[in-house]
């Protein structure tokens, strides 16, 4: 028997240790970055690990066209130094390394290296992130430095894959570029869609039903009293988008753009909005869609708009102060607590706002005169909610609900609830078959009887704030999440209750036809209407008035939703903000 020298045994053990110290298992050895076959000298062992740290985006998720960073950590698990290159790809494309692009790194045993790569303006969908740490190539031909690290031309040997790791991320769509996932927006619009209670008066149901804006425009002509904008006949409006560019020359004078301003005598920009152009409808368009279609569709002429704002950007300064005090400490100059604002906008072809008292002989004359002076073509009405993104239960996430009627705001702050409970069905408070929860505030029981003039400064209007609001139960989730809207006969004003009054207006008793609104189309933002929503560009961008123009036009038809103060313009869009009129109606 041959006896091995002690020195030889030590050398052999050292070699074996080098081969198997990191792990006894074989490493996966895929092709190299340029398709070179990995070369393992003694054995393919796991000499290193690489970990990925992709962001989740928090509760709002990762968004398309919103860049994000991915961190990685390389660890040397081997007993000797190793030299290598890190590449990270996103859907097969090599990412920019913010600190060590393509450079060789050397790691001593147990040493780690951390780095960061940039995923720039990703598309929506699933993104595959793959990280590799591999040895440099040794090539007999020309060697240089490329986007994926050291590259070579010719016979290359020596590539060894030390470690690899992959993971997938989900990038949510943000087609309107407002910094909020379209998926979240659509979910909010579906969750909180209102219960619409129309009213009967004068012995009949509502006579001016909702209508889709595309149908309304196709049944209209464009009247212009703006010297810089031509009018258009009905034939030209069979393409409804024609009202956005009446001159047909790309100037888009009928569209809200950053160019809609001029300089005053002091050289300061002044908004041109709204332009004095009017979508003047036919009689059939004014009466709206057939009632059967309105009820079965449940969202004709209804459009949704959702934005992510902070507490300081809430439109009602009283609520903004309440929320800031609730969510932020006094040391912050601006409360940046994130809040969803969910807006529902309903369109009608005509508004019969006031009903003149029946005076013998002169009654018809007075009614005709009132219709000329007070009624108007077109009607945009809205109900809106503020939602806390950090609260999971949808009924508990409601921060406030706002109804609007006759240019007045009726807000209910849910932090002010003093009592709540179900309302009996088929009563004045709930003339329906629906399960409705009534929330009472500190002003519950105070009178709200508003006059025709000066209503915005009356005690009764103050009484209407934090007074009462109703939520209907969802038939599927059994949660009380749908704000109840009592729709005024003829004038379509949105009331939170049937119990208040406004002088000379028709009833808003809620005893007419009714339905839960179906999820409305999400129209997106000014300048970035939602793709695939045919009416989106008209709702978000028309710069004129939605209704007829006549000599009696003292009470003008309404401007579009973005030219109402309840529509939230994106605060970061400085160009568009520069043309926003300083004073807008509710």
Per-chain topology:
Elements: H1 6-20, E1 48-53, E2 62-63, E3 68-76, E4 82-90, E5 93-94, E6 96-97, E7 105-107, E8 112-119, E9 125-134, E10 138-139, E11 143-146, E12 149-152, E13 156-157, E14 161-172, H2 182-191, E15 195-197, H3 213-218, E16 220-224, E17 261-263, E18 269-271, E19 277-281, H4 283-287, H5 291-297, E20 302-310, H6 317-327, E21 338-351, H7 363-373, E22 376-387, E23 398-405, E24 408-413, E25 419-422, E26 436-440, E27 449-450, H8 459-464, E28 468-473, E29 480-487, E30 494-495, E31 501-502, E32 514-516, E33 524-525, E34 528-529, H9 536-541, H10 574-577
Parallel strand pairs: 2-14, 15-29, 27-31
Antiparallel strand pairs: 1-3, 3-8, 4-5, 4-7, 4-9, 6-8, 9-14, 10-13, 11-12, 15-32, 16-19, 17-18, 20-21, 21-22, 22-23, 23-24, 25-26, 26-28, 28-29, 29-30, 33-34
Short description:
This protein is α+β, with helices and mostly antiparallel strands.
């Amino acid at each position: 028997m041959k006896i091995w020298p002690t020195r030889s045994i030590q050398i052999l053990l050292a070699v074996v240790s080098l081969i198997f110290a990191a792990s006894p298992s074989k490493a996966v050895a895929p092709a190299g970055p340029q398709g070179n076959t990995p070369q393992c000298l003694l054995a393919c062992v796991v000499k290193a690990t690489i970990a990925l740290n992709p962001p989740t985006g928090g509760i709002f998720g990762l968004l398309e066209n919103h860049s994000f960073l991915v961190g990685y950590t390389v660890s040397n698990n081997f007993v000797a130094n190793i030299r290598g290159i890190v590449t990270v790809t996103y859907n097969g494309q090599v990412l920019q390394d913010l600190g060590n692009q393509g450079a060789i790194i050397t790691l001593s045993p147990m040493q780690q290296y951390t780095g960061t790569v940039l995923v720039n303006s990703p598309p929506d969908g699933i993104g595959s992130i793959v990280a590799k740490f591999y040895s440099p190539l040794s090539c007999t031909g020309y060697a240089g430095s490329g986007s994926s690290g050291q590259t070579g031309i010719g016979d290359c040997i020596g590539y060894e894959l030390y470690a690899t790791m992959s993971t997938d991320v989900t990038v949510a769509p943000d087609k309107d570029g407002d910094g909020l996932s379209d998926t979240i927006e659509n979910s909010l619009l579906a969750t909180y869609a209102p219960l619409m209670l129309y009213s009967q008066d004068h012995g009949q149901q509502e006579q001016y039903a909702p209508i889709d804006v595309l149908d309304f425009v196709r049944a209209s002509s464009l009247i212009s009293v703006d010297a810089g904008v031509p009018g258009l006949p009905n034939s030209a409006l069979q393409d409804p988008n024609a009202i956005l560019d009446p001159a047909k020359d790309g100037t888009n004078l009928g569209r809200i753009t950053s160019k809609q301003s001029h300089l005053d005598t002091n050289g300061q920009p002044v908004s041109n909005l709204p332009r004095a152009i009017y979508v003047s409808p036919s009689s059939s368009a004014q009466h709206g869609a057939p009632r059967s279609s309105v009820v079965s569709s449940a969202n004709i002429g209804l459009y949704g708009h959702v934005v992510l704002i902070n507490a300081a950007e809430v439109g009602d300064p009283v609520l903004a102060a309440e929320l800031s005090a609730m969510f932020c400490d006094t040391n912050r100059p601006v409360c940046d607590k994130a809040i969803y604002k969910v807006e529902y906008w309903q369109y009608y072809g005509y508004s019969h706002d006031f009903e003149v008292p029946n005076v013998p002989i002169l009654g018809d004359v007075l009614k005709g005169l009132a219709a000329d002076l007070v009624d108007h073509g077109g009607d945009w009405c809205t109900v809106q909610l503020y939602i806390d993104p950090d609260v999971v239960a949808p009924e508990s996430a409601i921060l406030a609900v706002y109804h609007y009627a006759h240019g007045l705001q009726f807000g209910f702050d849910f932090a002010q609830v003093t009592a709540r409970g179900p309302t009996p069905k088929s009563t004045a408070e709930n003339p329906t078959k629906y399960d409705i929860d009534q929330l009472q505030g500190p002003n519950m029981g105070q009178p709200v009887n508003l006059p025709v003039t000066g209503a915005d400064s009356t005690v009764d209007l103050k009484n209407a704030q934090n007074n009462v609001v109703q939520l209907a139960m969802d038939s599927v989730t059994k949660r009380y999440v749908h704000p109840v809207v009592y729709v005024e006969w003829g004038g379509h004003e949105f009331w939170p209750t049937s119990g208040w009054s406004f002088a000379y207006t028709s009833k808003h008793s809620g005893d007419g036809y009714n339905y839960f609104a179906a999820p409305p189309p999400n129209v997106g933002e000014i300048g970035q209407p939602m793709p695939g929503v045919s009416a989106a560009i008209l709702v978000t961008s028309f710069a004129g008035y939605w209704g007829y123009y006549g000599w009696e036009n003292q009470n003008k038809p309404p401007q579009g939703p973005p030219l109402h103060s309840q529509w939230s313009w994106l605060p970061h869009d400085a160009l568009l903000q520069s043309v926003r009129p300083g004073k807008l109606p509710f």
